[in-house]
Amino acid sequence: DQQVKQNSPSLSVQEGRISILNCDYTNSMFDYFLWYKKYPAEGPTFLISISSIKDKNEDGRFTVFLNKSAKHLSLHIVPSQPGDSAVYFCAASAPRQGAQKLVFGQGTRLTINP
Amino acid sequence: EAQVTQNPRYLITVTGKKLTVTCSQNMNHEYMSWYRQDPGLGLRQIYYSMNVEVTDKGDVPEGYKVSRKEKRNFPLILESPSPNQTSLYFCASSPLTGTRTDTQYFGPGTRLTVL
Lengths: 114, 115
Fold this sequence. Notes:
The complex is a heterodimer of chains A (114) and B (115).
Chain A: E1 4-5, E2 10-14, E3 19-25, E4 32-38, E5 45-51, E6 56-59, E7 62-67, E8 72-77, E9 86-93, E10 103-104, E11 108-113
Parallel strand pairs in A: 2-11
Antiparallel strand pairs in A: 1-3, 3-8, 4-5, 4-9, 6-7, 7-8, 9-10, 9-11
Chain B: E1 4-7, E2 10-13, E3 19-25, E4 31-38, E5 42-51, E6 54-57, E7 65-66, E8 76-78, E9 87-94, E10 105-106, E11 110-114
Parallel strand pairs in B: 2-11
Antiparallel strand pairs in B: 1-3, 3-8, 4-5, 4-9, 5-6, 7-8, 9-10, 9-11
């Protein structure tokens, strides 16, 4: 039972355009959401997070949007750069389990084309 | 440099031959965890530890053991590996400040193949 789903295994975007990565979740207890970025042969690194009390969080070129009613979040990257090519994992946690108990999605491979 | 290290990075072994994957962190983090990454399944937690001598099962603990004798080390033990444990394994650590913003730091991964 996949509680966090990233339905697009891959995404290809032209450099300079907007990249939009999507994530859906089924567990209504999730109240904290994170995006991790992973390059080949490296471990995932934290990118950006959002609490369920917000609907948007911005950090430079990266913005995460949360739609609680739809149980959907998205990561926007504007403008996309070649260095953004990586696998992006969405993750969620529930309050009783603490911040450390993360449930991950399957990942989306983003390719930025020059 | 703050980091999580794993060894070995690559390992090919045969069914039933006991192996240990080591994990060490130099950030004095209380929390450590092991994940496996499989195609189409993302990262799934195997075991975690909240502090020395405190370990607990994650979502997919079958076939694995862990120990936490020292704060910096959290080895993953496969007593009798089987082909379905062929996977990419990640160790992670995190402080435990009690806030929801504690970020997990991941090691570089260990690619294990069990023949």
